[in-house]
Specification:
The complex is a heterodimer of chains A (114) and B (113). Chain A is mainly beta and 114 residues long. Chain A is built from no helices and 11 strands. In chain B, the strands form 2 sheets. In chain B, strands 2, 4, 5, 9, 10 and 11 form a 6-stranded mixed β-sheet that branches. Classes of the chains: A mainly beta (114), B mainly beta (113). The interface between A and B is medium-sized, with 24 and 21 residues.
């Protein structure tokens, strides 16, 4: 399966600031996704990162709070904007290399907001 | 709204025991059911199931899907301490929700020596 590099692996941020998380894949993939895992919870899909067009957001997530870019088939970024303590979570990118293939996850970014 | 429910939520066993983890789903445009193992941050892919009644096997782990009753099970035989993890079940949808994974709450498995 594809090698997925996500960075930073962790960060501690101040309230009101923004952080951009990067996800790099070693091969071209059809689909890239961003998930959030709040403490003690399961994974929730934030959005599908579409190459060359605006991301598709799930209910409860908006572009102003979680802007996403996907300039090509191997790279995507997620920005967590105007952070508050409620944004403290693990953020994970996942990739699907083609139709009918499983999603594989990056190592995640553990984000703590003070 | 798509829904995935796992049981039990936690399980404590001793090495050598066999465990069965359960996953039921209610999904519009169901395509497949996936199992992942999460030890620290990244979920690691275990199985993807698309057809009923066909068991998938990898070493001591196996899984099967029942599309009529809308559930799947994950079996782990001869458990080892290294099997201690959170096991996540997820449904994969099609149509306008193509690619979207809906996760269950997870089962926390603890294997004691």
């Amino acid at each position: 399966s594809a090698v997925i590099s996500q960075k930073p692996s962790r960060d501690i941020c101040q309230r009101g600031t923004s952080l951009t998380i990067q996800c790099q894949v070693d091969s071209q993939v059809t689909m890239m996704f961003w998930y959030r895992q709040q403490p003690g919870q399961s994974l929730t899909l934030i959005a599908t990162a579409n190459q060359g067009s605006e991301a598709t957001y799930e209910s409860g997530f908006v572009i102003d709070k979680f802007p996403i870019s996907r300039p090509n088939l191997t790279f995507s970024t997620l920005t967590v904007s105007n952070m508050s303590p409620e944004d403290s979570s693990i953020y994970l990118c996942s990739v699907q290399s083609g139709v009918g293939q499983p999603q594989h996850f990056g190592d995640g970014t553990r984000l703590s907001i003070l | 709204e798509d829904k995935v429910v796992q049981s039990p939520l936690s399980l404590v066993v001793h090495e050598g025991d066999t465990v069965t983890l359960n996953c039921s789903y209610e999904v519009t445009n169901f395509r497949s059911l996936l199992w992942y193992k999460q030890e620290k941050k990244a979920p690691t892919f275990l199985f993807m199931l698309t057809s009923s009644g066909i068991e998938k096997k990898s070493g001591r782990l196996s899984s099967i899907l029942d599309k009529k009753e809308l559930f799947s099970i994950l079996n782990i035989t001869a458990t080892q301490t290294g099997d201690s993890a959170v096991y996540l079940c997820a449904s994969n949808a099609g149509g306008t929700s193509y690619g979207k994974l809906t996760f269950g709450q997870g089962t926390i498995l603890t294997v004691h020596p």
